[in-house]
Amino acid sequence: MATRRKKAASTRKPDALRLLRSDHEEVSALFRKYEKGTRLGAEEKRALAERICDALTIHAKIEEEIFYPACDEAVQKAEDLLAEARVEHQTLKDLIAKIEAQQPGTCEFDAEVKVLGEYVKHHVKEEQGELFPKVRKSDLDLESLGSELAERKSSLQQPARGSLAGTDIDRRIE
Predict the structure, then answer these.
(1) Is the pTM of this model over 0.85?
(2) Tens digit of pLDDT for each residue in 111-128?
(3) 16-36 vs 42-62: helix axis angle to the nearest 10?
(4) Residue 56's closest CA among 94, 82, 83?
(5) CA 102 to CA 151: how far, in whole Å?
(6) What is the DSSP annotation of 77-143?
(7) Number of CB atoms found within 10 A of residue 71's CB
(8) Helix 42-62 crosses helix 107-126 at what angle (to 10 degrees)?
(9) pLDDT band at 14 (very low <50, low <70, confident <90, very high)
(10) Cα radius of gyration rounded to whole Å, the chain
(11) CA nearest 24: which of 122, 161, 137, 147?
């Protein structure tokens, strides 16, 4: 009986909050790999930074297009949190643009990635600690919203743009 429940839970589509939390965990893991990657070359760092920036860009887009508007309509007393999240997203986009314009292998490049990581950590803490509980208590259909987010996320994902993406960077860092 317990196995049947586990199987049902694993085949069920994630709700919106689980999907967004999973994105948060994925990008946090990428930041940790970057921090550990002191022996990586400039192009390997560039490829890892591109993965981080791509994941954050897609995540921000699905939140801005689908999640935040749904919260605007259905989550009471979340206006300030949503306004702050939107401002934080703009700052994240600005940092991503700086990273994409930088040359890897410089102290500035590493510093930009580090600052982006710290900023994302702050944003995630507020979102998961303050906004998500309000969303969970609302009348939003989180499974339907999760499906919509997953579909849009899938449509935005492109093959990795960095020439080193998909190589052994992950193995070299760990």
Answers:
(1) no
(2) 999 999 999 999 999 999
(3) 160
(4) 94
(5) 32
(6) T-HHHHHHHHHHHHHHHHHHHHHHHSPTTSHHHHHHHHHHHHHHHHHHHHIIIIIHHHHHHSS--HH
(7) 24
(8) 30
(9) confident
(10) 17
(11) 122
Is 2's pLDDT higher than 70? no
On whether the CB atoms of residues 150 and 13 are closer than 8 A, the answer is yes
Question: What would the two tokens of residue 103 be?
Answer: 């040359």
Q: Where are the domains of the chain?
A: 14-157
* Residue among 151, 19, 127 nearest 71 (CA): 127
Contact in structure between 61 and 156 (CB atoms under 8 Å): yes
Q: What is the pLDDT of residues 83-95, one digit of tens each?
A: 999 999 999 999 9
Domain 14-157: give its CATH architecture.
Up-down Bundle (1.20)
Which one, of 172, 147, 153, 162, lies nearest residue 26 by Cα? 153
* Interval 70-80: pLDDT, tens: 999 999 999 99
Element housing 171 (H / E): helix 169-173
Digit-coded pLDDT (tens) for 148-162:
999 999 999 965 444
